[in-house]
Amino acid sequence: MLKKSMAAVVMVMVFALALAGCGAEKQPEAAAAPAGPTRVAALKGPTAIGMVKMMDTYKGQPGIYTFDLYTGADEIVPLLVKGEADIALVPANVAATLYQKTEGQVRVIGVNTLSVLEFVTADTAVQSVAGLKGKKVYMTGKGTTPEYALRYVLEKNGLSMDDMQIDFKSEASEVVAALTQDASAVGLLPQPFATVATTQNDTLQIVMHLGDEWDKVAQDGSHLVTGVTVSRMGFEPMAM
């Protein structure tokens, strides 16, 4: 199971470059201009936060773009597979899955999120990855980039997810609530939720950055990519 997860992590890191190369080699026929608006689907949180200005710019102009936000990547995948979305902002490993499911008919058009994942806890004794051993860890992202990235960092530090109690939540707000109730637990939270948590509860602190821990153990000089923007092959987004 761990080997499969590690393979997925490697795929995350090479995906942006490898998929761009695939797109260059396989030139699809140009798609006809869409009859309706460009349909954009995005995952709530940091994956979509860079789209806020664009959403504000086209607010009240539904004939140009439509924007839909979702709490889980599994809600977005079928939209692209069935052609019901033109552009999507998703976790990097989900983009790799989409590429396979659509037999290359989905391409990466940009990286929208690097590492924004923070370890938050009231237990200031946790200052290293080794300090996670035996801890209750609340996090989101089951089956997506946060889980695979954590597995990779743990393995490189001689640990596994079996060395701690992982409790996956569906939304970051649930992680924040759980940390309020359990002072000894650790939360793996994306920004801006990590900062919100420490603002609302002054006993909580950001003790580690997952991206920094990745950099310490990555032997290939790679950096943690958590979110990418994809589009259907042949679809050309209009100029903004």
Keywords:
about 20% strand; alpha/beta; 5-stranded mixed beta sheet; about 240 residues; 9 helices
What would you note in describing this structure?
There is one protein chain. This protein is of the alpha/beta class. It has helices at 2-25, 46-49, 52-57, 73-81, 92-101, 145-156, 172-181, 193-200, 210-217, and strands at 38-43, 65-70, 87-91, 106-113, 117-121, 136-139, 165-168, 186-190, 205-209, 227-232. It has a five-stranded mixed sheet with strand order 2-1-3-10-4. A five-stranded mixed sheet has the order 7-6-8-5-9. Strand 6 (136-139), helix 6 and strand 7 (165-168) form a beta-alpha-beta unit. Helix 1 crosses helix 6 (145-156) and helix 6 (145-156) packs across helix 9 (210-217). It is globular, with a radius of gyration of 19 Å. It starts with a helix and ends in an 8-residue tail after the last strand. The relative contact order is 0.21. The model is unreliable at 1-34 (pLDDT under 50).
Structure summary:
This protein is of the alpha/beta class.
Determine the structural class based on helices, strands and strand pairing: alpha/beta
Q: The biggest beta sheet, please?
A: 5 strands, mixed
Low-confidence stretches: 1-34
Average of per-residue pLDDT values:
83
> What kind of assembly state do the chains in view correspond to?
single chain
The secondary-structure element order is HEHHEHEHEEEHEHEHEHE
- The strands making up the biggest β-sheet line up spatially as 2-1-3-10-4
Distance between the termini: 43 Å
Instruction: Figure out the total of helices.
Output: 9
Overall morphology: globular
Q: Estimate percent helicity.
A: 25-40%
Secondary structure: number of strands: 10
Assess the beta-strand content as a share of residues: 15-25%
Rounded to an integer in angstroms, the radius of gyration calculated over CA atoms is: 19 Å
